[in-house]
Amino acid sequence: MPRHTIIAWMEDKPGVLARIANLFRRRNFNIESLAVGHTETPGVSRMTFVVEGDSRMVDQAVKQLLKLMPIIRVEDVTDKPAVVREMALIRVRTDAQTRGEIIQLTEIFRGQIVDVSRDSMVLQIVGPEERVDRFVDLMEQFGIVEMVRTGRVAMTRGDDNNNNGAKRKGTMGL
Asked: pTM for the full model?
């Protein structure tokens, strides 16, 4: 099944995330990743999530999302030119022999070292999901102690994207 990247703009209100998750759960979608944060508009949050499903199923889910009152706009950016990124923080085991190699690999992947202790390092990598996956694969040889990934965040390319995506009737602005 293809994976779809969907962006939803919503009013900043309690319970919105639970309502969206419940809508997808009822339709047997698994939300593979989810990232939520504030936007440039006060009182509006932006949610980027990834779900598996065919285009027809995803279209129906998008239409149902638009019926939820706090939802302002929804856009499936899967097939649109977009900037898509993910961030990971990875704590790896280190010692005197491996520290140099880990530093070198982190630099090659344009990552950052954000914390160092005697026996571990916390590394940050930001980029397309495939690059993050490759970096994680390389770090496994050193021993990943702990890891967290944000999931995808996405933004369509271009100068003015305010007219893309489906809006709930009667909404202004976005």
From this structure: 0.81
